[in-house]
Amino acid sequence: TAAMASRALNLFTICRRQFGTTGSLASKVAVLGASGGIGQPLSLLLKQSPLVSQLSLYDIQGVKGVAADLSHISTKAEVSGFDGPASLSDCLKGSRVVVIPAGVPRKPGMTRDDLFNTNAGIVADLITAVAKTCPKAMICIVTNPVNSTVPIAAEILKKHNAYDPRRLFGVTTLDIVRSNAFVAEAKGLDVSKVSVPVIGGHSGVTIIPVISQAVPSVSFKAQDRETLTTRIQNAGTEVVNAKAGAGSATLSMAFAAEKFVDSVLQAIDGKRGVIECAFVESTVTEAPYFSTPLLLGRDGVEENLGLGNLIEFEAKLLQAAMPELQQNIAKGVKFVKERY
Ligand code: NAD
Ligand code: LMR
């Protein structure tokens, strides 16, 4: 029997290694703002994930049609649509992951901070419902301005004694996705093998690509590095201008959010070694929230992997980011202190 027990243990270890998990592989995921430009393609991508058992879609308009449409796709996830505030808690009940792309996008000439007045209240209200209904969920915030909406969410969660800094993420994955695409393009690399960390926040100068830490390592002339960095920082605006009033990035954002949610799902199901950058509560710099590479685990952030070595050019970008980042964060905190 000792031999049998040892064989069973070996088999268990092999299975764990093979599937990288001991979890249920079945999570309920809620998307808030599911009828929108991001919400629809994001929900489509999540419907294809084998890690999603239930896909719960919420919006204040049009979500029943989106849910009916997606529910005819022959994949595992069961889709339900929830229309309007009265159904929000039913949508959220039992969710392990909540993704929030609800809110207005930019038009040409606007900054992300110009969205604050409309989107701050939307995020605060949605997070209040999350705090009451599924306080243990992993919360992934896409709604801009991310530098402010994440502190808003944290302050609301604190008010409901439901704040766990390991479980609240501002989704900055699109900055990494873009950096990977642009670096691969510039260097003629296989983009599926390129990984560029992006730290800081998610707006203009607060976006800090750390090209010196790219994998595989790449070298650029100083001028080319600067041009590439500026393009990554302005990539959102590049799309806003190309869409000419019809909104901001939606398809690339859906891809990025699905990538991030997939990593969170794998980590909460027990996979080891999952690393993503995200905007979280942080002591890495003087800013109380900051994005850096994070090791994810069953309870969210397991370890903050920090800044790593920055070259002088990147250290200067970091310095330049701080005032705007601190202001954006303080504005979010103040909003909740004054209004809630
Ligand atoms: P959109 O206008 O196409 O869709 C937004 C959706 O949110 C709509 O369906 C709308 O009905 C819904 N909504 C509005 N108020 C709501 C509420 N109180 N509850 C639930 N749903 C509500 O906009 P979009 O292009 O999908 O962009 C959404 C947000 O994502 C914007 O704030 C945009 O700036 C942001 N964004 C962030 C990133 C990022 O990298 N983090 C990238 C792109 C866009
Ligand atoms: C992006 O980076 O594409 C988003 O933050 C949307 C925007 O307003 O640029």
Description:
With 340 residues, this protein is α/β, with parallel strands linked by helices. Helix content is 46%, strand content 17%. The protein contains eleven helices and eleven strands. The N and C termini lie far apart (62 Å). Bound molecules: nicotinamide-adenine-dinucleotide (NAD) and (2S)-2-hydroxybutanedioic acid. Residues 105-106, 112, 144, 174, 202, 236-237, 239-240, 248-249 line the site of (2S)-2-hydroxybutanedioic acid.
Number of strands: 11
Mean pLDDT: 94
Strand content: 15-25%
Please trace the helix and strand order, writing H or E for each element: HEHEHEHEHEHEHEEHHHEEEH
Keywords: NAD, Oxidoreductase, Tricarboxylic acid cycle
Catalytic activity: (S)-malate + NAD(+) = oxaloacetate + NADH + H(+)
Subunit structure: Homodimer.
Binding site for NAD(+): 33-39, 59, 119, 142-144, 253
